[in-house]
Amino acid sequence: MSCKKPNWILLKEGGERLSRDGIVPFTRRHLIDCVHEEHPERGEGSLNPIIQGMTVNLKGGASGSIGKNIFYSVGRGLFEFFNQEKHISIHKETELVQFSEGTKYTEDYIRDFLMDILYRRIGLEGSWEGSGKAASFNLKDEFKGFRCFAERSLPYTLPAGEIINHASDILISNDENGKYISIEIKHRSSVTDQFKCRSYDMFHLKKSYGSNLLGIMVYVKTTTGIGVEHARSLCYFFDHYFSIPIESKDAPVSWAGLLLVVKDFLKS
Hints:
Helices cover about 35% and strands about 25% of the residues. By secondary structure, the chain is of the alpha+beta class.
């Protein structure tokens, strides 16, 4: 007898099973495979848009699933169950900072904007020092020992033994335990060389620091510049790639996924 449960229920049950098994975050493939184990007749083409519609911070999807508010996207192709207290708090805090009308967007502006978001979300109140490229602050007590810097250098070693300093746009570091988060920001990049250079540095940083370093690329896209997916293809040495359309007025909310992966690394 065929199952009469709607696809969104089967996907929800699959996510619950994955969560019980400790597979969090999970992927679309994980969810679809869970459904196909017992219901191979459910087409992948129909399941994919339903996952989209069940995800709070994604647009579009199948009409029957929109508004279900089941999943939350924590990165490209990565999901977890939506937790109102956890995820809405991120939205509220990021919404405190908004792009203003008539702002001339530059990478420096976006760096300062992101530094402000990080400070509001994970920074220790009253610890902010400096401004622009000299800005820095301590992280909250739960992340004690970490400090966030704008334009901070981190050395890596080439195969021949030569040491090179790479200046991250934003660096979160804890020198005592040797853990680092390097955040790179690109904006209105019209040539691929800028992404290739960043990827080259990230390759050697990962070789030098391994799993103790988290690499994040943020591409804040305007109507000009290379395509989002083209840029992504060049950033394969980064652990995470986030593309954010600058013209969107809810752009601050779009930083939620980045905040989640940063916090997860800090807690690991």
